[in-house]
Amino acid sequence: MLHVSPVARTGALLAVAAAALTACGTANGAGTTADSGKPVYGGTLVYLEDRQESCIDPQIGGDIPQAMIGQQYTDDIVYEGPGGKIEPWLAKSWTISPNGLTYTFTFRDNVKFTDGTPLDAVAVQDNFERVVNPKTGSSTDGGYIAPFYKNSKVLSPYVLQVNLTTPDSSFLNVLAQGYFGIESPKGFARGISKNCQYPIGSGPFEVVKDVPNQEVILDRNPDFNSPPPGSTHTGPAYLKQIIWKIVPDESVRWAALTENEANVIYNPPSEDYASAAADHITMFDKERPGSPNSIIFNTSVAPLNNVLVRQALLYASDEKANLKSAYFGTYPYVASPLVPGTPDYDPALANAYAYNPAKANQLLEEAGWTGHNSQGYRTKDGNVLSVTVPYDSDAGQTPPEDLTLFEDIQASEKVAGIDIKLQPISTTELDNLYEGNGYQTLADGYWITNTPDVLRTLFSTQALKYYGTNADKYSNPTLDKLLAEGLAEQNPAQRQTLYDEAQVLVSQQALIMNLYPAEERLAINANTHGVSADYAVGLPDFYDTWISG
Length: 549
Known about the structure:
Elements: E1 2-3, H1 11-24, E2 44-49, H2 64-73, E3 78-80, E4 86-88, E5 91-96, E6 102-107, H3 121-132, H4 141-145, E7 149-156, E8 159-164, H5 171-175, H6 185-188, H7 192-197, E9 205-211, E10 215-220, E11 241-246, H8 250-258, E12 264-266, E13 282-287, E14 290-297, H9 307-316, H10 319-327, H11 357-366, E15 371-372, E16 378-380, E17 383-384, E18 386-392, H12 400-415, E19 419-425, H13 427-435, E20 441-448, H14 454-459, H15 461-467, H16 477-488, H17 492-508, E21 512-516, E22 519-524, E23 528-529, E24 532-533, E25 540-541, E26 546-547
Parallel strand pairs: 2-11, 2-12, 18-19
Antiparallel strand pairs: 1-20, 3-4, 5-6, 6-8, 7-8, 9-10, 10-11, 12-22, 13-22, 14-20, 14-21, 15-16, 16-17, 23-26, 24-25
Helix pairs in contact: 1-8, 9-11, 10-12, 16-17
């Protein structure tokens, strides 16, 4: 999934914090009293998220907040375990034809959706047909599946044959992602509007209340019987209820946690990591695979249509130092177009574009930016070397640490004579810039997925022409060929070689300014146990979570 942000505290903030804390209630277990060493049933978990989409159905759109909440009420066809191993979940077994075009899944025969309807082969077939239908607007899982999905055939009540148009080596990985959690066909037959607010799955919880962009309440599914292989117990969830609240300001979320008004918060302030232990708070960080958080370069507009300028921008800024300054050392720097942990990641690129101001100056001279104005910025033919970086002014989209990071980058680039103009604008304005190709760069771009095919999603001509996900506006037949061959290749060693070549090419072209990996970052109250995240894309999972007295 692509997130492009479309992609100092004051006295006034304290009033907002007080209001938010009052609204959150008290995050204490309301079930059976027991010591903290043994899981107990009952209790309400209060979880604070930074943002939410108006639609909580991850099959529609497909942004990460939708998948995060979808993880609580849906199950997936297959499970991705440690090391990327694909294991049974709803599908208890499957076969793949020698040509890689036919997958035959045998599903469990005892799983029902929370509306009482069976999760069978027909239901799964309906889910496939739904996400590949353009009217659904499934930009993430539909984007992964539709280009390769030919049709499917129900062979028996719990056996489904799925036929592809071309081999897709990432197909099972995609099916393990929470974006394609299986939903009730009876539920989505109600229409997009109703299903957006009250989607129905077979997972450990069910949605009972949704106030868009404010809170979602999920109750325990008493009939749940389909936990994934990585779970620590079976049967219904320990928690009775989850209150999933939207609190954009990270300092307000942290205050709620330290005052025991929340059990778990998302994206805690980096500056508070050091004090967490003293407050008996557990910090949970899980790196998400895919493409790192970055500043995307539009290669179709000047001066970023010159690869020398793009490379100079990367050499001129010391991202390791900038990240340490902005995020207090809590985020690693990622130099590759793939995050470490993504299948077929190439570690040879771990130090690509290491800080080298002399190299940056050399490249800018070669590009013809040889003059300087009175402010020290480089000039060429009377034009100043200037690059605008628009970013979302919503704190839920651009946290304070990111703004500090952008300012540090701005200062680094100034030394090289590059004028970086930071432009805070609304989400709507940012969307309009993206849709109208009215940008030089886009800040906060990343794509979370458990497959190297993310390179095709972001940088291929196919993505540029048909998917709308190639924000770099880059097209290269050599890269297209490598990515197509990598996707079709069934041999792991040969696939690794193809994706290594593709990563090198993307890196050489300097299509993005790599920053840091997207992570599942949680802060957890001392009375809350068993919080985890899935291996596929790092979604929070509260099935095994319980609250001590």
